Amino acid sequence: MKTHVKALVVGGGAVGASVAYHLAKAGRDTLLLERDELTSGSTWHAAGLLPLFNMGYATSHIHDYSVKFYKTLEAETGLNAGFSVVGNLRMAQTQARMDEYRLYATTAEAVGIPYDWLSPAQIKDRWPLVRTEDLVGALYHPTDGYINPADVTQAMAKGARQHGAEILRRVQVDGYRWTGAEWVVSCTRMEEKGGNLVPSEERFDIVAEHVVTATGNHAQRTARLLGLKIPAIPVEHQYIVTEPDPALVEYRKTQPEHPVLRDADAKWYVREERGGWILGPYERNAPARFLYDVPQSFRADLFPLDLERIEEEYMSMIHRIPSSETVGLKDDYNGPICYTPDGNPLVGPAPGLRNMWLAEGFSFGITAAGGTGHYLAQMMVAGEAEIDMAALDPKRYGSWMTTEYAARKNEECYEHVFILHHPDEEREACRPLRTAPCYDRVKAHGAQFGQVNGW
Ligand SMILES: Cc1cc2nc3c(=O)[nH]c(=O)nc-3n(C[C@H](O)[C@H](O)[C@H](O)COP(=O)(O)OP(=O)(O)OC[C@H]3O[C@@H](n4cnc5c(N)ncnc54)[C@H](O)[C@@H]3O)c2cc1C
């Protein structure tokens, strides 16, 4: 077992595995520690969608890198991660939504992501099960789709090992101490007792020149161990899986799989799953969870389904795909999905700490993992990434940020995933937080306010 490494990665989800892969590939002596099993965090229950659509420049590059990288992994590792390149169809019910897509298309073009515009007639022609009479059009990405999240993580982990990295499971990081030159990381061997994962008596230290934390839903504990405040707090996210839809089964006898369908105005995504449909809504009132810590007993667990909360989106799926009306429910998932107030992950140097790097707060972590590993490794090895990573800089949230603020803003951000996004969008939750002395007087004169850095 390595006890002194150049780079230590904490967390064996999709993000940690990718960071370890890219650091090892760059020639860095790398060790990854996972407290449970690889993929036992949010990664195992993700729907695996890899949407290229993104309003941000850095995240577009990151997602683009991932999609291309995942297509190469099988040749490198021999592991097939089940990448179904079915494309991705974003439907618009209004002209305003189409305008939003046009705004997005400018980012896509800057990054080099291919896309097409489709009319309702073209959609109907290719995918007759989709109701189109109330659509204005759609944006279609032919090159993305979905992947098996656990398999792509295992493939990246295997690739990391092939490049010389070591991966230790059942080791939990419990403390970090900076000596002035290196990090001394306190570890506890974890063991299984009665179905629970509990700390054993075995404790040891690992010394690392650089540390990357990719601890998913455990980010609040990680922040506390590091003496930081970061707004990565998970929110509940559900998706349901239907029984096979006879109309879909019949259609698939002669036709290729549907693209991932997104009805942004109805706030859901849908994809095929074994002759049935997966419906993933971004519903209202999904609560934040684990504001302070993840209980030891919570491993690869799920929350109970809250069908009432997703009723509106369920009905709108039936509207859009009428054949799904009579199909029963087969399975459901309600898991924690990490968020930050602006929806971007926290990737880069940990504020105020040397050689400590954060890769936390991922809500599209399967999509973002590949690119995050690539660009974060560039920052660590070459001193900077080839793209501007400022939008993901962890220090964009300062000490003004409270736990309550992060939780409410993350709930709002989740609910806003499919809200129509305007340029310079401002959101309401937790405002005003910090105001200038002249706030009341300026307001009395009818001023409108935006928020910057909590002000
Ligand atoms: C229902 C649902 C559907 C989703 N669908 C999609 C989708 O379609 N596409 C998409 O891109 N994303 C999706 N997501 C989000 C995606 O699952 C996450 O963004 C992603 O899995 C985050 O990966 P991660 O590596 O950051 O975290 P995790 O997978 O949670 O991994 C973190 C790991 O760190 C370990 N760890 C924590 N603390 C320590 C410690 N102190 N010591 C050692 N190990 C530690 C944990 O055990 C865990 O294994 C979905 C999420 C949910 C809930």
Protein architecture, described:
By secondary structure, the protein is an alpha/beta fold. It has one domain (4-391): FAD/NAD(P)-binding domain, CATH 3.50.50. It has helices at residues 14-25, 57-70, 73-77, 95-111, 120-126, 149-162, 219-226, 246-252, 311-320, 365-382, 403-415, 439-444, and strands spanning 4-10, 30-34, 88-92, 116-118, 137-141, 166-169, 171-178, 183-193, 196-213, 233-242, 260-263, 268-273, 276-281, 329-339, 346-349, 356-360. The model has no long low-confidence stretch (mean pLDDT 96). The structure holds flavin-adenine dinucleotide (FAD). Flavin-adenine dinucleotide (FAD) binds next to α1, β2, β7, β10 and β14.
What is this structure's SSE topology?
Layout: E1 4-10, H1 14-25, E2 30-34, H2 57-70, H3 73-77, E3 88-92, H4 95-111, E4 116-118, H5 120-126, E5 137-141, H6 149-162, E6 166-169, E7 171-178, E8 183-193, E9 196-213, H7 219-226, E10 233-242, H8 246-252, E11 260-263, E12 268-273, E13 276-281, H9 311-320, E14 329-339, E15 346-349, E16 356-360, H10 365-382, H11 403-415, H12 439-444
Helix pairs in contact: 1-6, 1-10, 2-4, 2-10
Bound molecules: flavin-adenine dinucleotide.
The site of flavin-adenine dinucleotide (FAD) has 40 residues, from helix 1, strand 2, strand 7, strand 10 and strand 14.
